[in-house]
Amino acid sequence: NAGVTQTPKFRVLKTGQSMTLLCAQDMNHEYMYWYRQDPGMGLRLIHYSVGEGTTAKGEVPDGYNVSRLKKQNFLLGLESAAPSQTSVYFCASSPFYRERGNIQYFGAGTRLSVL
Amino acid sequence: GEDVEQSLFLSVREGDSSVINCTYTDSSSTYLYWYKQEPGAGLQLLTYIFSNMDMKQDQRLTVLLNKKDKHLSLRIADTQTGDSAIYFCAETYSNMLTFGGGTRLMVKP
What we know:
The complex is a heterodimer of chains A (115) and B (109).
Chain A: E1 4-7, E2 10-13, E3 19-25, E4 31-37, E5 43-49, E6 56-57, E7 65-67, E8 73-78, E9 87-94, E10 105-106, E11 110-114
Parallel strand pairs in A: 2-11
Antiparallel strand pairs in A: 1-3, 3-8, 4-5, 4-9, 5-6, 7-8, 9-10, 9-11
Chain B: E1 4-6, E2 9-13, E3 18-24, E4 31-37, E5 43-50, E6 55-58, E7 61-66, E8 71-76, E9 85-93, E10 96-99, E11 103-108
Parallel strand pairs in B: 2-11
Antiparallel strand pairs in B: 1-3, 3-8, 4-5, 4-9, 6-7, 7-8, 9-10, 9-11
């Protein structure tokens, strides 16, 4: 039972390089999310998707792009990495439960360092 | 989103009770959640409470909600070393969650 899988787990980039983080979920969830976690700041929403082919901006979208071409996958791209993007990135997915709100299931995270 | 605030750190002795507090600002939140994050891992849902409830108990966990004061707490009875982790409260708005900054719980043997 895989749940939410993120690849890669670790990555080091040089300033200006690009990369794509992949998130895959096998629970047939409609909603998917990308967060970044920085010390003492909790999780901040970067982008999210409410279904295949749709994406929307979250709280901190600048410098990131996303795509959801397939329901089970949500990709996060950094076109030109900056040191300020050094962080731990989490992907989450959620069904919609009318009786339980928005329970999100998280991947194990990707630790990214930008030098 | 709205602000969700938590204290940064809590230290307790094994066997004691732990109480982690959270304040939120969005009075329209319908559900509030507690998540646990162990080192090197993602967040895992511990429990949740509907806004029309005052209390919810689930084994060693007790959630108290004071909607008037917008205050949420998580009590862990008989705290064990395996409970050492970061605990996040979260409130909902639309299809999204707003998280607090997390409380690091340290359990001393």
